Amino acid sequence: MIVGMTAYPWDDRCLKLIGINIVKISEADYRDHPDLCMKIVVEALLSLPSGFYTVINHTEPVTCVMDIRLTDKGCGLRLRPFDRETINSIKQPACLRVVVG
Asked: Is the pTM of this model over 0.85?
């Protein structure tokens, strides 16, 4: 189950364009309409400007990290394990937060 998600740009160029977006999803909506909620999450990600992002999925029981590249022609994705280096390497503030609850 996703309890939240945070996207961080790799540089401040993307952050200047959009600021910080927050998407709130109730637990009831996530439970009763999971497909619709995931569609909203994907749309929020794809609405970010072209660039590279680190996305941390705060999932239970294990947190997941994705590096994504968004372009006008599509996107690329790389999954990797969550570790302290991930948190320590993030230099930019979040540009997208998804909160479930």
From this structure: no
**CA gap 30, 41 in Å, rounded:** 11
Q: What are the residue boundaries of the structural domains of the chain, listed by start?
A: 2-100
CA–CA distance, 83 with 62 (Å, rounded to integer):
11
**pLDDT tens for each residue of 21-66:** 889 999 899 889 989 988 998 899 888 888 889 898 887 777 888 8
The CA distance from 91 to 95, in Å, is 12
Listed as own residue / partner, the contacts of 34-39 with beta carbons closer than 8 Å and 24 or more positions apart are 37/100
> Do residues 70 and 48 touch, judged by C-beta distance below 8 A?
yes
Residue ranges of alpha helices (H) inside the chain are 12-18, 27-32, 34-46, 84-89
